[in-house]
């Protein structure tokens, strides 16, 4: 794997420096009530069902709704209200108070993930695959952790045997939405791959998952516009919601740049003669706990300036339609609604910062608006 992160990584956290004010949004666009934090008292199937509902519910808005709510005069006088942006960051960073409910998943002495105690109970039935030693690595206190059976020594054997477990759990609907797409299990990006895991299972094992998101934009008469996609209603996750022009997970065995060009062709019909110009501009990460799922995602972000004449054309059936929207109006959609797939909002908020759309607001407010941590990255090979 290789990815070039030229200058920074934003960890979008929930450590905000001010109290949220009420969202300036009509009731039809207000988010559903937050999920309860009492997951440990739920039976396993009920908890999995709860988790699935957050990403599998069908949207009920049209492009007309999107255009209407994006207009500056739809909610007058909210241009200096940042609470809607903060809320989108919070949505991707829930459950930090529940980290103690997860135990470490360790391979070859390296922590590769975190698994909920309740889900561990189900894994204990696969005695030839998972074992549960105890260690005193935490200040003399003995703690349990999960690892793989010592007979599973090679990445190929681990992938095959764990894959059979995932297939079984999928048939029981304990891991919904099996995609038959493998993610590498690593301790950090660019480190050795211990085995490969079904994408749908990644949050149940708390592994780090990597993806690419690309902002496809156009400039007309000095104004920037973003191409926005509306996901197919038959997508297993976030059907019908707004999305980037191009985005996708980073499977095993493909580089970020190769993946961007592949996704450009599949999702928007962008030829390599254009997509090879996509510029890596940084990364966004977040950590979200919901039920038994612990999503630890790291998104490599790209910008691609497109020709005025370009019209996207979906090739893989995953996007229903596209629309070109002024960037300032896209900001309003994020601020006022929950129309976007949650992690897309984070990447677009980063785009708004980098392209100067927040400067006039933030410069008048005396706090660090997102409590971002900035790290410098080098090229990984």
UniProtKB/TrEMBL annotation:
- Pinpoint the Nudix hydrolase domain residues: 209-350
InterPro entries from the entry?
Answer: DUF4743, NUDIX_hydrolase-like_dom_sf, NUDIX_hydrolase_dom
Family annotation (PANTHER family):
THIAMIN PYROPHOSPHOKINASE, THIAMIN PYROPHOSPHOKINASE 1
Name the UniProt record assigns to this protein = Nudix hydrolase domain-containing protein
What organism is recorded for this protein? Hevea brasiliensis
| Lineage, top ranks | Eukaryota, Viridiplantae, Streptophyta, Embryophyta, Tracheophyta
